[in-house]
Amino acid sequence: MNLECLSLEGNFSSFLTDAYLQREVLAFNPLSKLRIFDICGGTVNLTLSTAKRLANLPAIRELRVGSWRLEERDFKELVDFAQKKGWDLIISRVNRSPAT
Questions:
Q1: What is the pTM of this model?
Q2: Which end of the chain has fewer CB atoms within 10 angstroms, the N or the C?
Q3: What distance lies between CA 22 and its chain's CA centroid?
Q4: Is 67 contained in some domain?
Q5: Assigned domain for 11 exists
């Protein structure tokens, strides 16, 4: 599949985890054409390891992690990781969820 933008909004916290993304998505589709990865809504159980895995995708240019369970130190590590690799990658932490 030649998916270029994955943008989901909703409550995915009950199933969207690092293991799910690896087993149920990346195992079947390497997302080699993916340019934008964006999940917003409720907090999702995705971590730094998944962020680094997605940041390594060949076409990725924007990784939006606002709804992820990332501590501030993890977010900084991710930004440093991308900068050290010299990647042209936008990593944003804006959560576009409506206020409750």
A1: 0.86
A2: C
A3: 12
A4: yes
A5: yes
